Amino acid sequence: MGIREIAKEAGVSVATVSRVLNGTKFVSEDLKEKVLACIQKEGYVANHVARSMVLKKTLTCGLIIPEVSELYHQMIFSTAERILENAGYKVMVCRVKDTLASVRVYLDLLLENRVDGILLMHETSNPKVYEQLKKSQIPIILAGIDIPGLPLPQVRIDDYQASYDGTRYLLGLGKRHIGLIGGWGYSVGDKRLEGYKEALSEAQLPFKPALIVSGDYTVESGKLAMQKLIESGENLDAVFVLSDEMAIGVMRAVKEAGLSVPHDISILGFDGITVGKYLNPTLATVSQPIEEIGLQSAEALLHLMKGESVRPLTLLSHTIREGESVQ
Amino acid sequence: MGIREIAKEAGVSVATVSRVLNGTKFVSEDLKEKVLACIQKEGYVANHVARSMVLKKTLTCGLIIPEVSELYHQMIFSTAERILENAGYKVMVCRVKDTLASVRVYLDLLLENRVDGILLMHETSNPKVYEQLKKSQIPIILAGIDIPGLPLPQVRIDDYQASYDGTRYLLGLGKRHIGLIGGWGYSVGDKRLEGYKEALSEAQLPFKPALIVSGDYTVESGKLAMQKLIESGENLDAVFVLSDEMAIGVMRAVKEAGLSVPHDISILGFDGITVGKYLNPTLATVSQPIEEIGLQSAEALLHLMKGESVRPLTLLSHTIREGESVQ
DNA sequence: CTGAAAGCGCTTACAG
DNA sequence: CTGAAAGCGCTTACAG
C-alpha cells in the first residue's frame, strides 16, 4: 500500500499524491479531495523511510546520554526532546555506559542511520572518537559538557566558577573542613575540583587530599563515599557533593552514622534537580539552569541543522540554591 | 559516497560490496580485503535508511512513555532499551504529556517511520486510538499498563492485588485511618483504588471519600495532595501513596506541617524506585519488579518482532518493601 | 564465487 | 495545474 496504489485509485499521478501529502505545490481542490479520500479510506500511512532517502534528511536527531546522574540528564533530555519535537524532529536515544569504546559505537549507529544532528551529553576520553567527530560534517552540540580540543559548540555553565562559588558559599558560612565528593577524569569533574582548590587556597586553607573522595555520580556511590569520609575520622564540618544524586546518598550515610544534617555536618549538592527541594532536609545546591541547557542546546542544534552557524560557547549562569542541608 | 563508489574503487560489483558489508554470502578473501581497504580508506558509512527501505524493516523500536512518574518509567525504559539495543535495535522515544490526542500523534509518527515494534507505557482513553491500534499489524507490547478492551500483550503486576496487599499491610500495623493519594481515570489507578476499598471493607472499615485525594503522579502533586489531606482535619494515621515520587512530596508536606513520619503518620509508597531506599526516613513501598517489567516487555517485543507469539498477559509479582516511613 | 539488473516507496526537476 | 520518468542507496533473486 504505497503512494502508487493511492494514485491509481484516485486516478491521478504519484506526483500529485506526493504534492497533496506534503503541500509542496498547489493542487486543485477536486484532485486534492479525491486523494485525501483515498488516503483516508485505505488508511494509508506515508513511508518516511523512503522519503528520507530521497530527501537525504531524516528529520531525526541522535541523543547520546550517559547512564549516570539520571535525574539531571533526564531533565536536559526532556527539555531538548520537546524543543526538537516541536520543530518536527524525532529523537533517537543512546544511553551510554561509561566505557571508552561505546561512544564510538553509538556515533557509528547514528551516522549509519543518517540522523540530521547529534546532541552529545557524554564526554569521552578516547581520542579516536574525536578524530571521527572532527571528520564527520554532521551538526553536533555538546550539552552540559566540555571536550577540550574538540572544536564543537558547547552549551554549559562554567564548572570551575560554579564550584569555586559553591566552596566560597560554605566558607562564608564559617565551614573550615570541607570534604569534596565527585568523579574525576572528566573535564567537568576536574574543573570543579580546581574551583574547590582555588577557593580553599584563597581562604588560606590547606588542601587536604584525605577530604577528597571519588564517586561515580550514582546515589549509592555518594553513600559509599560519605561512609569512607566518615570512617576516615577526618575533621569535617561540611561536604560539597558534585551531584545532587550523590548528595542523596551522602545524606543517607550521615543519617546512618547517627549524625545529623545540617547540625553535625552541612551538605551542599550540585545540579539543582527538582527532587532536592522535597528532601528532608531540603538540599542546598549549586544549581545549574538545567532546562535552559536543554533548551539552548536543542535550539543551537536546530540552527546548525538549518545550516546556520552558532556561537562556539554559550555559557549559562549557575546559582546557589539555599536549603536546609546547610547552616 | 555510496556503495557504488566503493565498488568501482575496489574493482568489484556493488553486490559484492553489499555482501562483505553484511556477511550475507561468502566472498573470496582477496576481494573482501580490497573492499574493506576501500571502505576504511574512504571512511564509508553504510546508509541504513536505504537498507531499511529495501529490507522493509528498520531495526528500530518506538517507546511511548508518559511524562509522569519519571523515575519509575525511566527505569523501565533503561532496562528495555538495553535489551533492545543488545538485540540490534535502535530506540525512538516519544514522551507523552497526558492529552488524549497526543498518543495518536506519536503512534502516527512511529508508523510513518516504520518502526518494527512499539513498547507502550502510556494508557490512553481515546477509543479512536484503540481502533487504529487494532488495525495496525505492528507488534506492540503494553509495559506496566492495562488497556481494557485492547487485546495487546501486557507485562505488568496485578495492581488490584498489590494495592490490596499494601492496604492490608498498613491495617496489619494497626492503622485504621488510611488516606489514599493517587490518580484516577486510568485502569492502573482505578484498580488500585478498588484494591484499597476491598481491603478496608474486609476489615470492616468504612470507606471515607474525604480520605481520597488525587494527584498527577508528580512530586509536587503529592505534596499538594497531602497538604489538602492535612488541612481537611480528618483523622489520619497513615497514607498510602500510589507512586513513590508523589510520596516524596507527601513526606515533605508532612514535615512542613510540623508533623513527623512515621511518628505522627505512616507513609507507604508504590513502585519501588531506587531513591526510596535513600530517603530519610527510607520509604516503605509496594515494590514493583521494575527492571523485570522492562526486561520481560522488551523480550516479548523481540519475540513479536521475530514473528513468534507471546502470552497475552505476563503477571509479575510485587512485594512489600519495608522502610522507616511506616511503624 | 561474482555480477547485471530490478525494485524498495518516495520526491522533484522537466515538460506540457 | 498535472504527469512521466529519473534517481535516492541499498539488497537479492537470477544467471553465469
Please give a structural write-up.
The structure is a homodimer of 327-residue chains. By secondary structure, chain A is of the alpha/beta class. Chain A folds into three domains: 3-46, 434 Repressor (Amino-terminal Domain) (Orthogonal Bundle); 58-157 and 291-315, 3-Layer(aba) Sandwich (Rossmann fold), CATH 3.40.50; 159-289, Rossmann fold (3-Layer(aba) Sandwich), CATH 3.40.50. Chain A contains twelve helices and twelve strands. In chain A, the strands form two sheets. Chain A has a six-stranded parallel β-sheet with strand order 2-1-3-4-5-11, with helices on both faces. In chain A, helix 1 (3-10) crosses helix 2, helix 2 (14-22) packs across helix 3 and helix 6 (100-112) packs parallel to helix 7. Chain A starts with a helix and ends in a 6-residue tail after the last strand. The A-B interface holds A 43, 45-50, 52-53, 58, 60, 67, 70-71, 74, 78, 81-82, 90-93, 95, 108-109, 111-114, 135, 219, 223, 248-249, 251-252, 255, 274-275, 277-280, 282 and B 43, 45-50, 52-53, 58, 60, 67, 70-71, 74, 78, 81-82, 90-93, 95, 108-109, 111-114, 135, 219, 223, 248-249, 251-252, 255, 274-275, 277-280, 282. The structure holds a DNA duplex (16 and 16 nucleotides).
